[in-house]
Amino acid sequence: MGGALVVFSGGQDSTTCLFWARERFEQVRAVSFFYGQRHRLELDMARAIAEEAKVPWELQDVSFIFRIGKSSLTDTETAMDTDVPEGGFPNTFVPGRNLFFLSIAAVCAREHGMRDIVTGVSQTDFSGYPDCRDTFIRSLNVSLNLAMEEQFVIHTPLMWLDKSQTWELADRLGIFDLVRRRTLTCYNGIPGDGCGECPSCRLRRRGLERYLERRKRSGEGRVPSPEGENTHA
Question: Which of the chain's ends, N or C, has fewer CB atoms near its CB within 10 Å?
Fold first, then answer.
């Protein structure tokens, strides 16, 4: 296959997707975004992982996002929700984030002669964010194709995987330790296993425990992982 651009945050999901893409595409690039997030450390970690993977990396400044929408991930004065509120979504939701990220990624991909875009969104184990749903990705894929008269394909390898299966996929890809020790998923900006208390850390930890227990029961170093590929065109 040809080249693919990975939307890359330096977290568990996007790192897994980066190496998933490397396994399938002849050329892979990564793009990260500064959107006013609390912790710029994730961008440093993203750059380091991309360099180690020998993947060209670029950073796009989309800091206008935090100026037009409020989220506890961009506003240090807002206390972070610990659970999904009934009838809504947590204030860790950044309005428009994936809409902006994927739209800009499509423009970047086009400039590099790429039509495949990879993102780590999932609606199986997620925090209630509407822009992580399969219906949104499908709709946006059509819109991007119409907007630029192109045939982009948005790949969502993790869409129907829970967090334990995402760990399993990382293990199959040979990056289990990298993901566990050198990615940043924690909302409080602590690498690796993180703070253990924020919603992202709890979700990550539950998935890890389930996968390790399943791997232990299998009696093997690791268990076969489902492909988990979801592709939209």
Answer: N
